[in-house]
Amino acid sequence: MLRSSLRQVSAALKEGRVTPTELCQRCLALIKSTKFLNAYITVTEETALKQAEESEKRRKRGQPLGILDGIPIAVKDNFNTAGIETTCASNMLKGYISPYNATVVQKLLDQGAVLLGKTNLDEFAMGSGSTDGVFGPVRNPWSYSKQYKEKSVPKSHSEDEEYNWVITGGSSGGSAAAVSSFTCFAALGSDTGGSTRNPAAHCGVVGLKPTYGLISRHGLIPLVNSMDVPGILTRCVDDAAVLLGSLAGHDPKDSTTIQDDFKPFELPDLPDVSKLSIGIPKEYHAPGLSSEILSLWSKAADLFKNAGAKVVEVSLPHTRYSIVCYHVLCTAEVASNMARFDGLEYGHRSDVKDSTESMYAATRREGFNDVVRGRILSGNYFLLKQNYEKYFVKAQKVRRLIANDFGKVFGSGVDILLTPTTLSDAVPYTEFIQEDNRTRSAQDDILTQAANMAGLPAINVPTALSERGLPVGLQFIGRSFQEKQLLTVAKWFEKQVQFPVIQLEEAERHDNGVFQHQKSASFS
Amino acid sequence: MAAVLAMVARGCGGVWRRLRQRCAVRPGSGPFPRGERAVACNARGGMMSAGKSGLTPWIPVVGLEIHAQISSNSKLFSGSQVQFAAPPNSLVSFFDASLPGTLPVLNRRCVEAAVMTGLALNCHINKKSLFDRKHYFYADLPAGYQITQQRVPIAVNGSLSYSLCIDNKMSQMVTKTVRIKQIQLEQDSGKSLHDDARSQTLVDLNRAGVGLMELVMEPDMCCGEEAAAAVRELQLILQTLGSSQAVMAEGQLRVDANVSVHHPGEPYGVRTEVKNINSIRFLAKAVDYEIQRQIEELGNGGTISNETRAFDSKLGCTVPMRDKEGKQDYRFMPEPNLPPLILYDAKSLPANMNHQQVINIDWIRERLPDLPSVKREKLVEQYGILPEHSFTLLNEDGLPEFFENVVKQTQMKPKKVIGWILNDLLSYLKQHSLTVKESPVSSFLLADLLNLLEKKEISSTAAKQVLATSLSAFPHTCKQARDLIALLLCYVEMLVTKWDGTEDAAVTEKNWCLQGF
Fold it and tell me: Which family does this protein fall into (chain B) (predicted)?
């Protein structure tokens, strides 16, 4: 039961095969036994059970609030949740209890979803490993899967596990791990440079970054306002469509959301891709791309070709400037967005009281980690009067060029772009921390970042297991607001590749239900 | 040996000069034709030693930056109420306190107020304007930045015409124009209350996020009186439009003055910014003081530094303000959470657009009320009163209406009515610090009295006495007063009728007063 999809479990709830409370309890038990993953910062057991109880009442009355009623979900800890700690994995907000719900959280609750807890991340979502938060790194559930254990060179067992565990990617690593380890049926992440798609790829789940402006950011603690999008993490593409339908649309509290109403959609069961033109951007053949992923990418292209789709190589010439450009724009907005954390109204406040200024300084030194402080420093440098034109304005122009590249490609008749999501499969934590956050982010965001620059929708679809038994995903990038087309293609692809299900001892122990998602052959 | 520093009294063309005697007249040799910029800026007698450049004239340059609080129910970017003197921190939304994750939502009313003000000040309204963040750390600025319009403000290139009198004579009025560089929408900050005794600062965020219009005036003025007259006219315009209540004492209108002096033909001098000016009278004083100070300083071989100074109203002088850590770099950047502000006019208005969602400049233009200058012209034209009287009428809220109401109800010529209102009624009200709306004598009653006078049923002396008595018999409430005066007038009328002029009305009235009260 726990390992089924959201739509499947919703059907089970509807048919009474399981009650919301039972489901919630099972999830909570699994969260406990997978605590070592460090996926959750806060588990809201009490309120979750209460919400489940309410849902149960509604279901009994035959008046469920919809498909999400009673479905356990998790939310990244950079979304505000009323009455529940919202920390951003930072000392600055440790213990901070927000008085309001983010619009997306409110929408989920209004539709009866059961909030299990808040998931781990890099501090203020700044990172690509989910290793740089004050609550410690998130461990990739696949590190503990039968698939990985079998393939990783067997040494002495117990120490090995401690040494060999791989990162989730980030910054929404907690949400990706939570969905991947079956502790919830869907989770919210956020995506600024790839923070939803990257961990989704490493954890073998679907990660959707919708078009900028399609989902409200109100209540999402910002990283880069002009690129942040709430992300959706699910086990399959259909579930992502369900979540999208329940979250998208205008929000009067976010002036950057679209004015038009959003019509939720269902994806066709037998999608047809034969009339589509799939673009393969050559620049995504980036230095450092593993040969494994390269070959998967080209096999994927062949799949489309064989299905009758037109597959064309395209060029996005400015993509290679995306990372440096992002560095300037991101740090500048970070410097600005973080200015509010001064210890006065909320959050951490230092005991230093010599003067207001010294209190500010000490508060911010104690409250932020090196990564955050480093970005604030460089961002303020880029915004200085004498630097503004040289860096910020230039970066904005480059951003426009990057967006124009996409416009030209889509204008030429290409419907969807197919690219890798990450350069390689997930690396062991011990290896990952050999390099600093900045270097890591620059490398890891390279394939995902441009979509944020252009505001385009993009999705990671788990594709196959690597030689080491770890998930690898591919990314589809669509036209603005053409989520339906994007997800349709993603669903078709998902069907073709039959990505294997993670074999996780803990989950199997907790899950005595019927498992419907059986896989035989996998795509590799 | 002391010399008196004085402003050239006439034909000064905005040129100040160090002089050894008071009020010397410098013939019309200034850069401006005599009379045109003639301003009788009152000289403030300042003491100074005779310098080397004793007769080199100085041209003072005054520019103003004005913050007008927008009169609206809610704040610029949040739904919090706007109210003066509410209990501390009672009008603070999550956004105003900058709780993480909150976003600004632009208040339509504030945009309309700015458009209205821009139109009234002959500005070009930008159909696309942008918002920016201006960063600085201060306890009453919770977000660490203010949202303002630095790059493209909502209105630019306007002008404001104002009049002032020469030599303090109401009969000699000149009209001048100051250019408006721009009007930008921005957020107000909160208030910090420093408790030095307990070395703590208390922060009140009620004002944080209230909508402001910042009006930047070009340095087209040359003395305190010009600045004061310009601000007074602006205040009247804002009040007429209803875009701001513009009460300086309540901080709804805040004026900072940029002041510099230079010799003719030379580039502008280093300017100082004078802040903390909370009345129009103090504005004139502060500017004049600062001009004098700079002239003295330079005359003594000193230099002017580009600093911020505060006006000390008790001492009547400007003093350097505690410097906030030297020069600030505000690190401006575009506000990413607000799309560009798009305005429409009749031509550009898309046909299928919901009217609730768009702001139509032409629609607002058509509905602009008569501005003070137009009202004055109409009063002069319609009633034949003197232009200077129209200024006095407009200067008081409700006075033009009072005047028109009296005129409507009496046979007396408006020219005569105005005398009664300005000389008798207004001077009394001023003496007792009453507004026109608080007047114990209503327009109706004054009209009655003037009718009696016009019909020669009472003498002018008697009428004056009745009015004086009515005003001074000012009882506890206005209502009571009006009742009493109504009674009084009835009685006078009655008596007049009864005795048919055989008895001096004044005497009767006196008797009645003695008997009745």
Answer: Belongs to the GatB/GatE family. GatB subfamily.
Q: How many CB pairs under 8 A join A and B?
A: 101
Is residue A37 within 8 A of residue A141, CB to CB? The reply is yes
What's the first-to-final CA gap in chain B, in angstroms? 63
CB contact at 8 A, A457 and A483: yes
pLDDT at A462 over 60: yes
Q: Which two tokens stand for residue B370?
A: 């008569």
- CA dist B397 and B236 (Å) reads 9
CA-to-CA distance for B295 and B269, rounded, in angstroms?
A: 11
- Over the stretch A382-434, which tens digit does the pLDDT of each residue have? 999 999 999 999 999 999 999 999 999 999 999 999 999 999 999 999 999 99
Asked if A107 contacts A246 with a C-beta cutoff of 8 angstroms, the reply is: yes
Q: Which of A344, A326, A98, A134 is nearest to A221 (CA)?
A: A98
Q: Is the pLDDT of residue B37 over 50?
A: no
Rounded to the nearest angstrom, the minimum Cα separation between A254 and chain B is: 6
Q: Nearest chain A Cα to B77, which residue? A: A253
Check residues B321 and B92 and name the one with the higher pLDDT.
Answer: B92
pLDDT tens profile A84-136 = 999 999 999 999 999 999 999 999 999 999 999 999 999 999 999 999 999 99
Cα distance between residue B210 and residue B214, in whole Å: 12
A475 within 8 A of A459, measured Cβ to Cβ: yes
Cβ distance B486 to B444 under 8 Å? no
How far away is chain A from the Cα of B338, in angstroms, using its nearest Cα?
6
DSSP, residue by residue, A5-34: -HHHHHHHHHHTSS-HHHHHHHHHHHHHHT
- Mean of pLDDT values over A221-248: 98
- Is A195 assigned a catalytic role? yes
C-alpha to C-alpha distance for A192 and A197, rounded to whole angstroms: 10
Of the candidates A4, A5, A55, A76, the residue annotated as catalytic is A76
Helices (H), B367-426: 372-383, 387-395, 399-409, 414-419
- Chain A residues whose beta carbon lies within 8 Å of the beta carbon of residue B338: 255-256
Residue in chain B nearest A387 by alpha carbon: B331
d(CA B504, CA B462): 9
Amino acid at B494: M
Smallest CA–CA separation between A380 and chain B, in Å?
7
DSSP string, B111-179: HHHHHHHHHHTTPEEPSEE--EEEE---TT-TTSEEEE-SSS-SEEEEEEEEEEEGGG-TT-EEEEEEE
Tally of CA atoms within 13 A in the half-sphere of A299 that contains its CB: 15
What is d(CA B42, CA B7) in angstroms, rounded to the nearest whole number? Answer: 7
